[in-house]
Design brief:
With about 120 residues, this protein is an all-beta fold. The chain is built from no helices and 11 strands.
């Protein structure tokens, strides 16, 4: 079955950086779209960034210029480099794998930004 394993969350001060990684197994990587979502307490899950199989990217307005998504096709993984972090970036971040035949989320990793 499809498995997504995330890593890299943690606690960081405002202005700091973190790098999230997600590896995918049990799925057809070719043609997939990868993304990162986040959910803060009391809020709906929202799209943070996405990258297509052709490496086209899309970002939420709130993270443009601060976050960078990239994919490693050789290792079936996706990364999210987060810089200039703000307290409002605090959330559980979820990796997403989307194919024509389905859509999966990872278990989530906590990112906490202190002021």
């Amino acid at each position: 079955q499809v498995q997504l394993v995330e890593s890299g969350g943690g606690l960081v001060q405002a202005g700091g950086s973190l790098r999230l990684s997600c590896s995918v197994s049990g799925a057809i990587w070719s043609g997939s779209t990868m993304g990162w979502y986040r959910q803060a307490p009391g809020k709906q899950r929202e799209l943070v960034a996405m990258i297509t199989s052709g490496s086209r990217t899309n970002y939420a307005d709130s993270v443009k210029g601060r976050f960078t998504i990239s994919r490693d096709n050789a290792n079936h993984s996706v990364n999210l480099q987060m810089s200039s972090l703000k307290p409002e970036d605090t959330a559980v971040y979820y990796c997403n794998f989307a194919q024509t035949y389905g859509n999966w989320f990872g278990q989530g990793t906590q990112v906490t930004v202190s002021s």
